[in-house]
Amino acid sequence: KNVLQKYGNMSSPTVIYVISEFLSSGEYEKGDLGLIASLGPGFSSEVLLFQIQ
User: Fold this and answer.
1) pLDDT tens digits for range 19-31
2) Residue among 6, 43, 45, 10 at smallest CA distance from 35
3) Main-chain phi, psi angles of 38, to 5 degrees
4) pLDDT tens digits, residue range 32-43?
5) Residue 33: which of 16, 47, 19, 52 has the closest Cα?
6) By the 8 A CB rule, do 2 and 18 touch?
C-alpha cells in the first residue's frame, strides 16, 4: 500500500519496490515465506515465491 501511495502503479517494477519495502520493515523472521503476484496489461502476470534466509 505504501508503494502505491508514494509512486503509483508502475506495473511489473512495482514488485521490486514492494520487496524493498518489505525487507526494510524488518517484520519477518528467518524461514518466513513470501508470495508476491502482479498483473500487467493484456494477459501478463508475474508471481514470485521467496524464503528469507
Assistant:
1) 888 889 999 999 9
2) 45
3) -140, 140
4) 999 988 877 788
5) 52
6) no
The three cell numbers of residue 2 are: 505504501
Give the span between the Cα atoms of 11 and 45, in whole angstroms: 10
- 8 A C-beta contact, residue 33 and residue 14: no
**Nearest-5° angle of CA 26, CA 30, CA 31?**
125
* Domain boundaries along the sequence of the chain: 2-51
Global pTM exceeds 0.70: no
How far does CA 17 lie from the centroid of its chain? 6
* Strands 33-40, 44-51: pairing kind: antiparallel
